[in-house]
């Protein structure tokens, strides 16, 4: 199996405004697998950021996730172990061998620190990982070099693009946007497109 790296899309959005702290406090904590219209209804300031990246793709071919976190030092806004997104689950079981590399990419953007780490080089594995935990073990034991993406910049990634979250080094708001091609999206029923909660991950020795 080949582990891929993200592709920078040469689309940065430093020039576009974001919701203010007051607006983030007033609204929900995101959008779950919604349409661009759902994003516009909840976070209209983010739609221009999405349009910067999606110009080469069809808006309606994607579903959109937005996650808003208020973080304290030491908190992870996303999974801190190496994993890949939207890996196929035929029959309900994770299956890295079922990945179709010819599908359109997912598109990723974060507003600021803590950003997400990706592999610096493509890596070839002799065998398919049997779980996300197995993939994390392979990458850590292999000591593969990695890097953090730039904030307010759009990246393309695929089902075989490993990444992991990093911990906040200071308190503050963080916004995450991911556009996922509908053809690889989960078949699970969407209970609510308004995100009702955003989990954080804490090290075992975290304290206030």
* Mean pLDDT across residues: 92
In whole angstroms, the N-to-C terminal distance is 42 Å
Poorly predicted runs of 5 or more residues: none
Helix content: 10-25%
Total count of strands: 11
Cα-based radius of gyration, to the nearest Å: 17 Å
Instruction: Return the CATH architecture.
Output: Sandwich
* Fraction of residues in β-strands: 25-35%
Envelope shape? globular
For the biggest β-sheet, the strand order reads 2-9-5-11-4-3
Q: Can you characterise this structure?
A:
With 208 residues, the protein is an alpha+beta fold. It has a single domain, classed as Jelly Rolls. 15% of the residues lie in helices and 25% in strands. It has a six-stranded antiparallel β-sheet, covered by helices on one side. A three-stranded antiparallel β-sheet has the order 8-6-10, with no helix packed on it. Strands 1-7 form a two-stranded antiparallel sheet. The protein starts with a strand and ends in a 27-residue tail after the last strand. The model has no long low-confidence stretch (mean pLDDT 92).
Features:
single chain; 208 residues; alpha+beta; Jelly Rolls; 6-stranded antiparallel beta sheet; 3-stranded antiparallel beta sheet
Topology:
Elements: E1 2-3, E2 7-12, H1 21-26, E3 30-34, H2 36-42, H3 47-54, E4 62-71, E5 106-110, E6 117-119, E7 123-124, H4 132-142, E8 146-148, E9 153-157, E10 163-164, E11 172-181
Antiparallel strand pairs: 1-7, 2-9, 3-4, 4-11, 5-9, 5-11, 6-8, 6-10
């Amino acid at each position: 199996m080949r582990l891929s790296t993200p592709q920078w899309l040469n689309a940065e959005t430093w020039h576009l405004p974001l919701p203010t702290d007051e607006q983030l406090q007033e609204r929900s904590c995101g959008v779950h697998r919604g349409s661009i219209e759902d994003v516009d209804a909840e976070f209209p300031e983010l739609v221009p950021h999405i349009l910067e990246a999606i110009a080469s793709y069809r808006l309606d071919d994607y579903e959109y996730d937005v996650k808003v976190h208020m973080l304290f030092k030491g908190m992870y806004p996303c999974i801190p172990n190496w994993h890949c997104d939207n890996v196929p689950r035929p029959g309900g079981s994770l299956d890295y061998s079922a990945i179709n590399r010819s599908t359109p990419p997912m598109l990723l953007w974060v507003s600021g620190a803590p950003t997400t780490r990706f592999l610096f080089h493509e890596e070839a594995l002799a065998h398919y990982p049997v779980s996300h935990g197995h993939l994390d073990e392979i990458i850590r034991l292999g000591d593969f070099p990695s890097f953090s993406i730039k904030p307010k910049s759009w990246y393309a990634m695929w089902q075989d693009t490993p990444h992991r979250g990093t911990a906040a080094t200071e308190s503050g708001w963080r916004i995450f946007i991911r556009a996922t091609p509908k053809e690889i999206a989960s078949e699970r029923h969407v209970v609510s497109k308004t995100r009702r909660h955003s989990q954080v991950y804490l090290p075992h020795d975290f304290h206030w």
